[in-house]
Amino acid sequence: MRVYSIESAVIEYYKMNKRPIEDMNQISQYITDHTLFRNFDCMPVILEMFAAGWKLPEMETVMK
Q: What's the domain count of the chain?
């Protein structure tokens, strides 16, 4: 559930800004400021996602 929520926030950011989040600080800031996760400790989940090579599905489609 936590990973799904963060993935959704990253995709939402990409759609709104037409560019991907480039580092963990950006996603942490975005999640804290613009979503319902104000008290959500997302850093461990973000680290796991990026360490596993997670990428935006939409970005790969756009870049083809």
A: 1
Q: Alpha-carbon distance 15 to 25, whole Å?
A: 18
Domain region containing 44: 2-63
Q: What is the pLDDT of residues 19-61, one digit of tens each?
A: 777 777 777 777 666 555 544 566 677 667 777 776 666 555 5
- The pTM (predicted TM-score) of the whole model is 0.43
Residue 29 CA to residue 9 CA, distance in Å, equals 11
Three-state DSSP at 54 gives coil
CA atoms within 13 Å, Cβ hemisphere of 24 = 12
Contacts 24+ apart (CB under 8 A), 31-34: 31/6, 34/9
